[in-house]
Write a structure and sequence with these properties.
By secondary structure, this protein is mainly α. It contains two helices and no strands. The model has no long low-confidence stretch (mean pLDDT 88). Its main location: membrane.
């Protein structure tokens, strides 16, 4: 069978409005890296202090909790930034 589009296509593409500075690529990349890093920074400090101070790191339960927090924060940031990118409705944005 032949494909029938559900609606007519327009002759002229829709204009894409300009984005504010915080919705562009570089600030979003910085935010996507900074927020997960800030979630684990304190725990990384204690791990590096124990390695460089020749001590034994013994708080593995806290490390596991921080790892779970890192996964949750990373998943949330990924979903949020993908939503923000798709909400712009930029038809020229390539995947």
């Amino acid at each position: 069978t032949e494909f029938q589009a559900p609606c007519r296509t327009k002759k002229y593409p829709r204009e894409i409005p300009p984005l504010p500075w915080y919705r562009r690529t570089i600030p979003q990349m910085a935010m996507a890296g900074f927020l997960p890093f800030s979630a684990i920074y304190i725990e990384l400090y204690y791990i590096f202090a124990s390695v460089w101070g020749h001590k034994i790191y013994t708080i593995y339960s806290i490390l596991f909790i921080v790892f779970i927090i890192l996964i949750i924060v990373t998943a949330f940031i990924t979903v949020a930034l993908t939503y923000f990118q798709l909400a712009v409705e930029d038809h020229e944005w390539w995947w």
